Amino acid sequence: MIFHMPKQLMGLVIAAVICLGLMAEMASGGDDGGPVEYAVIVNASNSFADEASASNVVKQLFLKDREDWPNKNKDQAKPFGRAAGSPETKAFLAKVLGMTDAELAKHWIALKQKTGKTPPREVASDKMLARFVAKFPGGFGVVKADAAQADGVKVLFTFKH
After folding, report:
1. Within 13 Å, how many C-alpha atoms sit on residue 134's CB side?
2. What are phi and psi of 16, to 5 degrees?
3. Chain segment 97-141, per-residue pLDDT in tens
4. Taking every pair of C-alpha atoms in the chain, what is the biggest distance, in angstroms?
5. Overall number of domains in the chain
6. Euclidean distance between CA atoms 72 and 61, whole angstroms
């Protein structure tokens, strides 16, 4: 049996099916349905190595509650972020910062009013973020784990989301 549908309606049906497929993939966390692994990368010269406190230190540095790395050089922290709503940002918010988008926005507004500090610079891609982290001794940011193997950076810790 052949079913005929007006061309306009067919276009809407196809668009709806594609959207549902994309939404299902996003909700599953990855192509295979499992969680995606992310890495917090730091400049290769960073000597900080306390795995037990790494997540907490990164949280303090990213939120600018702390300015220097607790390493032998006391490198000034230079956090880099990803665009709001990106998979990297969503994972970092949930697993490392323990915040929602709204809570993070509220934090930056309050900090700007109190101290003049602004959010970390947003970088468009994993590759560009790794380049910026490699450029600054105190640089750090989050990338998909498979993008963490770049010149001038090293993995501080990984997490799944």
Report:
1. 13
2. -65, -40
3. 999 999 999 999 999 999 999 999 999 999 999 999 999 999 999
4. 75
5. 2
6. 16
